[in-house]
Amino acid sequence: MTQSPTPHSVLKKYWGYDSFRELQLPIIESVLRGEDTLGLLPTGGGKSLTFQIPAMILPGLTLVVTPLISLMKDQVDNLRSRGIRACVVHSGLSRSEQRLAMDRCRFGHAKMLYLSPEKLQSKSFVDELGRMDVSLIVVDEAHCISQWGYDFRPSYLRIAELRRRFPEARMMALTASATPEVSADIMDRLEFRGRRMFVKSFARSNISYIVRFADHKQDMLLRVLRNTSGSAIVYVRSRKRTREIAELLVAESVSAEFYHAGLSAEEKNDRQNRWKSGQTRVIVATNAFGMGIDKPDVRTVVHVDLPSSLEEYYQEAGRAGRDGEPAFAVVIASAADKATLTRRLNEAFPDKDTIRRVYELACNFLEIAVGSGYGRMEEFDFTLFCERFRLNPRIARSALGLLTSAGCIEYVDEISTRSRLMVTMDKHELYSLNVSERADRVFQMILRSYTGLFADYVNISETLLASRLQMSSKHLYEALLELSRRHAVSYVPQKTSPYLILTTSRELPRHVQLPRSVYEDMRQRMEKRIEAMKGFVFNGEQCRVVTMLHYFGEEEARECGTCDVCRSRRKAARPPVADRRGLMGEIVRIAGQPRPTTVDYIASQLSVSAESLLPLIRELMDAGQVRVEGLVVSAC
Fold this sequence. Notes:
Structural class: alpha/beta
Distance between the termini: 59 Å
Oligomer: single chain
Number of strands: 21
C-alpha cells in the first residue's frame, strides 16, 4: 500500500532538505487542514516552499498569482529541474505559448500554474480556469491587493473572483512586509474564512543597520565598500545613476556593474550570474534588482538614495545576510533627502488635470477612438510616448499608475522576456525539411545545444548560437525566421515592453473619475509612509530596529545593540578598554571569527576608534598572531 506523501517526505524528495525553517511547517500544515492562511515571512524566509509543498500533496492544480513576471519563467524552470510539473501564463507570452500551458493544466499535466494578475481581466480566461480542478489559490506579494499598502495593484482585486469560482479551494496569501492594517485588509479583500495568520518577527539579528550622513555621498560609498568585504548591492533611484556610480567604482578599482529594468533580458541574466558567482563584487541597481535573487552571502546593502517607505527599505536591506552571518545595511543620507522625499510625494500625485491629460494622450498614442477600445491590450512604448508629447517621465508614470488604481486602464510596466523556441514539426517530418544550408546549420546547432524543445518553449541565446556557429547575428535571425516560416519551429524573439490594457471604453477626459480613495486617501497614506522613512533615517535618538519594528506593529521590540544609534550610546557609556593586553586579546579573538573581519568592524565591537587599534594590530602582526590581507584582519 502506497503511503501518502508528508511535508517532510516531499521536502526531502524534491529539495533534499531534512528540516524546515521557522514557521514554514505550521503554514504548510494550516493549508493542508483546509484553512485560509496568511503568511508574513521576511525577505529570505522561504515563502515559496510554503505553497509549493502543499501543491505537491493536494490533488488537482495550484494557482499562483504573482506580479513578478520577469521571475515566473525562472521559478517554473527551477521547479521543472526538480521534476515538478509547472506552467506559466502572462501577457508577454505568445498565444501559442499560453494555449500550450492551459492545455497542460486542463489535462492534468501540471501541478502549478503561475499567472499574472492582469490575466484575470479576461472573462474567457477566468471561464477556462473555472473548468479546471483547483485545490489551492496562492496570492504572492499579497500586499498589492491592499489600498493601504505601498504597492497597490487594482488587478489584484479580481483575485476574489477566483475565490467565488472555486469555493472549496484553500486561499493562501504571502508577503514579506505588511503593517497590521494591511494584513487585515488582505484577509478582507480575499474573503478569508477565519483569520489564520502566521507572522515571523521582522527582526534580523545578524544585520547591523547603519545610517551615515554625507554631503558627498559617493566618497562615503567608497569608504563603506572599502571597510567591508564580500558581495554588495548598492541601490539608487534612477537608471542613469546606476551607470554613473558603477563607472565611479570601477575607476576606483572596485569590481562593479550596473543593473536596471531597461537592460535586455540577456544582459540582466549575464550580470546577475557574474555577481552571484563572485566575478563581480558590487551590483549598482534600481529596485528592479533583487526580487527572487537567492544569493545568501551578500554582506552589504547600501542605499545611496532613500526609498519612499520602510516596506521597500526592509525588503531591499533584507537581501543582506540571508546565510545568517553578520551583514550590514547602510543608508547614506544628506540633509537634502528630506526635501527629495517630499518632492517624490508631489511627483507621485500630479494634479488631476495632468492625470486626465496623460489618459487622453495615451489613447491618442495608441490611436483609440472615444467610445471604443474596451478590453484592448497594446504594447506601450513608454519612452517614445514621453518624448512625443514632451512629458516628464516620472509624472507620466505616476499618472498611469493612478489611472490604473482608478480602474480606467491597466498599465503593466516593462515585461521583459527572453528569446524562446519550440520545435513544432513532428520528428519524422524533420528528415524532409527543405530549408537553406544556413537555416539547416542553425537548426542542427539548436538541437545539439538545448533539450526539451519538442515538448515546450525553451529559452535560447542568439548570442551563444551565433558564437558557436561563427555567424553574424543578422544571418542567425534570418535563419530563425526561415525555420519559423517553414513551421519547423515557433520562435519568439526577446523583448522588453510595457503593456496598456483599456479596462473601459475610451472616455472624454472630463469624464475620467479619480475618486477620493484613489487620490486623496492614497496620497495621505504615502505621506505617512514617507514620514516614517524620514523618522527612521533622521531620528538618531531611537534604535533603528526598534523604530522599524514599531512601524510593522511589533510593540515589544528590543534594542538591537548593533545599529549605529546603539553603538554610539554604548561608546558614550563605556570607557575605552585601558588594558593593552586585554585589548590585544580581544582583537585576536574577533579576528579569529569565521566571517571576514575589518579594522572598522573590530573597532565598532570594542567601542574604540580604528586609529587607536592600528599600532596594536601591527604589534600582533609582528608577533605572528594576526595577518592582514587587503582590508581583512584574520588570526594566524
